[in-house]
Amino acid sequence: MLDKRNLAIVPHGALHYLPFNTLQNDRGYLIEQYSIRILPSASVIKYLHARKSSKPTDILAFGNPDLGDSRYDLAYAQEEAQAVARTRPQSRVFLRKEATESAFRKYGRSFRHIHFATHGQFDSDMPLKSALLLAGDERSDGRLTVDKLYSMNIDADLVTSSACETGLGKVASGDDVVGLTRGFLYAGSNSIVSSLWKVDDQATGDLMAGFYNALKNSGKREALRHAQLSAQKKYPHPYYWASFQLTGNAD
Description:
This protein is an alpha/beta fold. It folds into two domains: about 5-40, no CATH class; about 55-220, Rossmann fold. Helices cover about 25% and strands about 25% of the residues. It has eight helices and 15 strands. It has helices spanning about 45-50, 75-85, 100-105, 145-150, 180-185, 200-215, 220-235, 240, and strands at about 5-10, 25, 30, 35-40, 60-65, 90-95, 115, 120, 130-135, 145, 160, 170, 175-180, 190-195, 245-250.
């Protein structure tokens, strides 16, 4: 029944956890034939189209925050944040001990694109406590949780969470999903790129560099598709490239 190239999918129930881009027919993966975005509900479309950021196309990037344990270090995430920032003039990067929640709160509203290359945690029992893990300081523990996002006004055109399980959430009453994606939408973000499972550090760095470069000449939905297809050539198994999905505005 699919006769349009651009697809907007509103999942129901357990389908919220399905990577639609990996569905297959006799012509290959869905992502090879269609450009896909996810919506939490059809009713959000009018609000997404109404919000257009007038900020410069600069990127605020956070990479490999110091979490106090070397087992959590992400060498490729640090390189990823730096590579992503180089795709735009006047971008700003915070690494290691400087990649704090306090820095995000201070500078988050000044940039059109925000990129997190760090760990993420999904808490299925307490979804409002699902978090992106940033470095702690004297003002914050570094856990950027969903309930904190509900009290913020970010107004970003795009938030990319290049981290583990950031696209997951708990399906609540009314088939809405409580998680980081909804938190960023609620805080005013126009679009979110997030992951459905624990991603490979190096493959993700390659994919994200391709995504931001493609974003210079196309919309977000097509840019992510291009990056995933490019990553697929180097990392054929869907584990490496299919985790990421775009939620929100496709342009």
